[in-house]
Amino acid sequence: MAQSEPSVTSIDPLWTRIRSEAEEIAHNEPLMASLVHAGILYHKTLESVLSFRIAQKLASQEMSELILREILDEAYASDPSLIEAARADILAVFDRDPACHRLLQPVLFFKGYQAVQAHRLSHYLWKEGRKDLAYFVQMRTSETFGVDIHPGARIGKGLMIDHAHSIVIGETAVVGDNVSMLHSVTLGGTGKEDDDRHPKIGDGVLIGAGAAVLGNFTVGNCSRIASGSVVLQEVPPCKTVAGVPAKIVGEAGCAEPSRSMDQLLQGIVETI
C-alpha cells in the first residue's frame, strides 16, 4: 500500500514575526504581558487578532465586543480580500512610517491602521446590503479614531494614513492601491448632488497633511498633493500640485511618491 504524503505545515512569515515581536515585548516589559497575550499570543491567526482588536476598540454600551467579534469573524471568513488588504496595510505602515519599528505596532497601537480595518468591515457590510450596521461601524470608527470614512467609499490595498487625525472620505470616493495620506485630509464633494461626487485617487499617490480634494475627478497614478492644497480639478499622473486652488508645479519627483514620502518641493517651489 502506498504511503500517504506527509502533511506540510504552512508557514506565514508575517504572522510568525508578529508573534515573535509580541513574545519579546512580554519578556522585556512584564507590565504589558497580559496585553500582548490577550491581543496577539492567544490567537492562532492574524484574522483572529484583528477581529479581537477591532471589536475591542469599537465596542460600546450600544453594541458589545462579543457581537462585533462575531460580525468580524463572519466578514473575514466570507471575504478573504479583507485579510489580504489588512496584511498589505501592515507592510505599508512598516515600510513608510519611520516611527514604526515592529510589524505588530500598527495592530496594537496605530489608530490609522485600526481605523482603516474598521472601514473595511463597514464597506463589507455595505456591499452585503447591511447598511444600517455599516453606518453604525462608521459612527463608532469616527468616534473612536477621529477618522470618518463613508461605508460606500472604496479603499485599495496598502493604504497608510499617518497620524490619522480628522480624515474625511466621502461615499463615492475611490482610493487606489499603495496610497499614503497624512492627517486632516479630506476627499469630499461640492454642492448637494446625490450621485458620483467624490474624487478618484490613483495608485501610489501621496496626499500631504491638510489637503482637500473636492469633486468628482481623477488624481492620476503616482502624483503628489502638497500639504494644505485645495484640489478642484483633475491631476495628471506623475505630477506635483500645490496651492489654493492647486496647480501643477512640477513632476512628482520619483516613481512612487507614496513610498518615498518625500513632501519637499525642491527645485519647483518658485513656480507656485
The largest sheet has its strands arranged as 3-6-9-12-14-15
N- and C-termini, Cα separation: 79 Å
Largest sheet: 6 strands, mixed
Query: What count of helical segments does DSSP give?
Result: 9
Rounded radius of gyration (Å) = 20 Å
Tally of extended strands? 15
SSE-based structural type: alpha/beta
Shape: globular
Order of helices and strands: HHHHHHHHEEEEEEEEEEEEEEEH
How are the secondary structure elements laid out?
Layout lengths: L12 H16 L4 H9 L4 H13 L6 H14 L1 H17 L7 H5 L2 H17 L3 H15 L1 E3 L4 E2 L4 E2 L5 E3 L4 E2 L4 E2 L4 E3 L11 E2 L4 E2 L4 E3 L3 E2 L4 E2 L4 E2 L7 E4 L4 E5 L5 H4 L12
Parallel strand pairs: 1-4, 2-5, 3-6, 4-7, 5-8, 6-9, 7-10, 8-11, 9-12, 10-13, 12-14
Antiparallel strand pairs: 14-15
Description:
Residues 1-9 have low confidence and may be disordered. Strands 3-6-9-12-14-15 form a 6-stranded mixed β-sheet. It has helices at residues 13-28, 33-41, 46-58, 65-78, 80-96, 104-108, 111-127, 131-145, 257-260, and strands spanning 147-149, 154-155, 160-161, 167-169, 174-175, 180-181, 186-188, 200-201, 206-207, 212-214, 218-219, 224-225, 230-231, 239-242, 247-251. Helix 7 (111-127) runs antiparallel to helix 8 (131-145). It is globular. The chain is 40% helix and 14% strand. It is built from 9 helices and 15 strands. 42% of the residues are buried. The chain is of the alpha/beta class and 272 residues long.
